[in-house]
Amino acid sequence: MRLQARIELTAMDVLMVRLFEAIDEANMPWIVAADSALREAFGDLLIDLVPSYTTLMLHYDCLRLSHDEALARIEAVLLHLEPADGGLGRRHEIPVWYDPSVGPELVRVAEHAGLSVEEVVQCHCGRDYHVFALGFAPGYGFMGMVEEALATPRLKTPRRRVPAGSVGIADRQTAIYPLLSPGGWNILGRTAVPLFEHARRGDPLLLPGDRVRFMPISRSEFERQGGDATPLEAAP
User: Which residues form the Carboxyltransferase domain (predicted)?
Assistant: First the structure.
């Protein structure tokens, strides 16, 4: 595979390294490899590096490195870049209680897909999801790709309050809300895994390149793990 990478100026000291034009799971070995190689190439001249679905946003110390020097370092990395091997990141098993009381869009997704609620749960738990990027809230990982059969548009009117631990899908993405926040994703269930606490300690549980497999559990097991079973009303 030959990369058709572009380097775009985003700010005086920020460059966007665009490796791909479309979201694809096959991008991740290249994104992970570029992340590692760029960190090594810039060392302490790097202020921040944010990998995403198709790009890496690189913020460097412009007082110690000129624009041309930064470009040269990136171009040297891209010239010799090879995809990371198959052992990308870590694999996480996330226990989820799937139930209409805490996953009020289970029925909506099932009707949209022409499946039963049980089939939706089986399908959502039936594969590993790649963590493409972090954002929106501390510990929030954008994951994919959801099976096409389950792909359901976002809610027309986002909720003002989505409980921490809510697991949802939007089109072909899936995610876990790490803390109480607004949101317009279709909520299928809830987990007791404390994503926000990991992020607050500076050690996010999910990182780009990781993989996630959701595991269905009962209400009693969810509550035993410390989960909050307070119902969530269905979206209008």
Answer: 5-207
